[in-house]
Amino acid sequence: MARLRRGEEILSYRAPSAEVFFLAAGKVRVIIYSVEGKAVLFTDLKAGATFGEIAAIDREPRSAGAEAIEPCTVACLNASQFEALLLKHPAMAYATLSISAPRWRLNRARARVQHAHGAKSNTSRAPAFGSRFGPR
Question: What is the CA angle 24-77-98, rounded to 5?
Answer without folding.
Answer: 70
